[in-house]
C-alpha cells in the first residue's frame, strides 16, 4: 500500500513508516499534518479520481526541521577581474508518515461553510469606498489639466519664434 502525495508543489511516493524530507513547513515539531493525496494504491487497485481521493487520508508528523547541504556558487569572467562567490543552504522539514488509510465513507462537509455560502454578498455589488469605475481618477486629472505622467502643464504651448536680426531690429524701430 502506497500513496503519491503533493507537498509544497512537489510529488512524493510514500508508504506507512517512511521518513520524508520536504521544503520547510510552518508547522512546529510534533505537529500532525494531513498531506494531499494524488494517487492511492492498495492490493492492485489504484484510486485516481477526485471523489475517491477524498476518502484517502495520509497522516504525517513533523519530526524535525533541518538545513540542507551547502551549495557553493562561483561566478567568474576571465580577463575582466570579475569573481563573485556565494552559497546557499535550503531549509527543510523531515516528515514521518504515520498512517495511510482509505475511509469507508466520504467525509462530511462542514455546516458552517454551507451556512455562510448563502449569506455572501453578490460579486456585482461594489465596495463603499470604490466610487465607480477605475477611470475616475483619469477623468478628474483631465478636468484639472494635469497629464497622466504627473507633471503639471505650464500654461499655453509655446511656439517657436524667429529672432529678428540686428539690422531688422534697427530698421523696424
Low-confidence stretches: none
Order of helices and strands: EEEEEHEEEEHHH
Helical proportion, percent range: 10-25%
Distance between the termini: 107 Å
- Helix-and-strand structural type: alpha+beta
Principal-axes geometry comes out as elongated
Number of strands: 9
Largest sheet: 7 strands, antiparallel
Strand content: 35-45%
Number of helices: 4
Rg (CA only): 34 Å
What's the rounded overall pLDDT mean? 80
Jot down its keywords.
173 residues, alpha+beta, seven-stranded antiparallel sheet, two-stranded antiparallel sheet
Written account of the structure:
The protein has a domain at 2-104. The chain has helices spanning 50-53, 111-117, 136-144, 166-172; strands at residues 2-7, 10-14, 19-23, 32-42, 45-47, 56-67, 71-77, 82-88, 91-102. It is built from 4 helices and 9 strands, in the order βββββαββββααα. The strands form 2 sheets. Strands 1, 2, 3, 4, 5, 6 and 9 form a 7-stranded antiparallel beta sheet that branches. A hairpin with a 2-residue loop joins β4 and β5 (45-47). It is 16% helix and 39% strand.
